[in-house]
Specification:
Structural class of chain A: mainly alpha
Number of strands of chain A: 0
Distance between the termini of chain A: 17 Å
Strand content of chain B: 25-35%
Low-confidence stretches of chain A: none
Distance between the termini of chain B: 33 Å
Radius of gyration of chain A: 12 Å
Shape of chain B: globular
Mean pLDDT of chain A: 93
Largest sheet of chain B: 8 strands, mixed
CATH topology of chain B: Peroxisomal Thiolase, Chain A, domain 1
Mean pLDDT of chain B: 95
CATH superfamily of chain B: Thiolase/Chalcone synthase
Oligomer: heterodimer
Strand content of chain A: under 5%
Number of helices of chain A: 4
Number of helices of chain B: 7
Radius of gyration of chain B: 17 Å
CATH class of chain B: Alpha Beta
Helix content of chain A: 55-70%
CATH architecture of chain B: 3-Layer(aba) Sandwich
Largest interface: A-B, 13 and 11 residues
Shape of chain A: globular
Low-confidence stretches of chain B: none
Helix content of chain B: 25-40%
Number of strands of chain B: 8
Structural class of chain B: alpha+beta
Number of domains of chain B: 1
Order of helices and strands of chain B: EEEHHEHHHEHEEEH
Chain lengths: 87, 214
Amino acid sequence: MMVELIEKLKIDIIEALNLEDVKPADIDADAPLFMDGLSLDSIDALELIVLLEKKYGSKIQTAEEGKKILYSIRTMADFISNHQKNK
Amino acid sequence: MTKQLIISKYCKIIDNMIFVNGKLVFSLKKNIQFSTFVKAAYRYNNMTYPKFFKMDNLSKLGLITAEFLSDEFKTKNVLGEEIGIILSNSTSSLDTDNNYQKTISNNSDYFPSPSLFVYTLPNIVTGEICIKHKILGESVFFVSKSFDAGYIHTLVSDLILNQGIKIVLAGWVEYLDNEYVSSLCIVKNISEKAEITKEIINFTIENLKKIITG
């Protein structure tokens, strides 16, 4: 279940952020999304927030919470999973 | 010392064709979508600039056109502060404005796109070119019904003759609904031209108009 969610999330992120030449297999689910890893920027962070809400119905409530949730693909998947369980 | 301004290089992109100094250097079939064409042009230039793919179409068009002229920026004795950009078009950023508006037009599907919003100004294309080529001089984007060669000529001349700018990238970059044209040229003092060839295009209003709109 979590593996499937992570794979789907990778595909959605590649599409939403126009990550040309990046394939799901290239993305380490535990690597930081910002600074290292995919080298995303602040606009990408905003797009990820929109993606979580639009595609997964999961809304980040605070900036502090956002930092932890958007750390990696896995932390995003955990957030979605927990959010869906608590629905 | 008297300065003689010249148009040292120019590039036009229209109908999936790229012309440099009037010669066709790259093309795809006319019916191919701009997104495919511009990606192929990126590959043709051997560019490694992932940010390109996050840009809106106007910025992609301007950036690719500037790329074909970029060897003119890479002059050893010219600093980033000594390069300026003056661009214009008639539809501003309307193409991206429309795309952004679609993300906020439906109350039940209201998800404003941050990555589209940041491109809802036409001068973002000048910024993207400046970032890519480390250009730090004067930059401006005008919106006018048609290319005003006289006005642009006055501005470019003033930058080079009075404001300490040595090279200006000037022209027209327009994109709306998969219809586009981009026509840019490099203006500099003849002494800045690395190689004096027989063919010199003097920077006159007539020549500027002919090159940009011809």
